[in-house]
Every structure is written in C-alpha cells, then in structure tokens.
Amino acid sequence: MNEGFSRPVAGHVPVLRLGDVLLVTLQGDLHDSTAHQLQQDLSETIARSGVTGVVIDISAVEIVDSFLGRVLAETAAQTELLAARTVVAGMRPAVAITLVELGLTLPGLRTALTTGAALELLAQPVVSSRSGGMHEERQ
Q1: Which of 96, 32, 26 is nearest to 54 (CA)?
Q2: Best exposed site among 78, 89, 109, 132 by fewest CB in 10 Å?
Q3: From CA 35, how far away is CA 10, in angstroms rounded?
C-alpha cells in the first residue's frame, strides 16, 4: 500500500491511508456483512502495514442504533489489540444523545469533533502508566 491514498476497502466503505493512519468514512447504514468485512479488512491492513491509528468518520451517519454502537466498540477493541488507536470523529449531537439513551456510552472509545481533531489526537504520544495501562500524554 502506498503512503498516499489506497483503494477502498470492504466494498463501499472508503478507507484511505494517510501516513500511519487509516481514515474510514461511514456513509449511511452499515449492514452485518459489510461491518464484518470492514473489521476483517481493517485488522489485516493494520497487521500488514503497521499503521498506528484509525479514524472512523461518522459525520454522514444520521441515525445510530445498538448495532452500529457495537460495531464501533468492537472495531476499536480489535485495533487496540493490534497496537493501533481508534478515534471516532464527527459524531452529531443527535447521535450522541441516541447512544446515551440506548445505554451505549462506549467506554474507552476516543472521540473527536472533527477528522482534523482526531488526527491531532492520534499524533499525541502514548506513554505507559504505572498501573501498566496506556494513556495519552496531554500537552
């Protein structure tokens, strides 16, 4: 895969490589088979290319349900296991309200208001804490 842009991964879900980060743009409904294929392709791409971050842009998503919430959480957990960090960007206020109403607070999932802010968050260094976990170093 080149350092610029890559071909779309998982059919109609565009995935671009921007240096060490994959940018995933969700554009509407995500079906079971598409979600599964996207997760598998992301995992394989991370393992093969060594990218260190994934930004999932959901700014085009108007309605979220428990399925999409679970997909986001599972995708973040999978990328974390492969030594990459995930940030969800562009969440609309109505989507955030719906997630909370569904009881899906998505603990551990990092969020940013914009894609640019997500890229900045991923650019921050990660340091080990004394308890053995990881946290982001704030400047």
Answers
A1: 26
A2: 132
A3: 8
Q: Which two tokens stand for residue 100?
A: 């909370």
Of 80, 82, 138, 139, whose CA–CA distance to 107 is shortest? Answer: 80
3-state secondary structure of 22: strand
55 - beta bridge partners? 23, 87
Cα→Cα distances 91→13, 39, 42, 46, 131, Å: 17, 20, 21, 24, 31
29-65 pLDDT, tens digit per residue, is: 788 888 999 999 999 999 999 999 999 999 998 888 8
Where does residue 49 rank: exposed (0-12), middle (13-18), buried (19+ CB within 10 A)? middle
DSSP conformation class of 106:
-
pLDDT digits (tens, 9 = 90+) for 78-121: 999 999 999 999 999 998 898 888 888 787 789 999 999 999 99
- Note the residue count of the chain: 139
The half-sphere exposure of 12 on its side-chain side, counting CA atoms within 13 A, is: 7
Place of tokens 């804490």: 129
- Which candidate, 57, 52, 62, places its Cα nearest to that of 29? 62
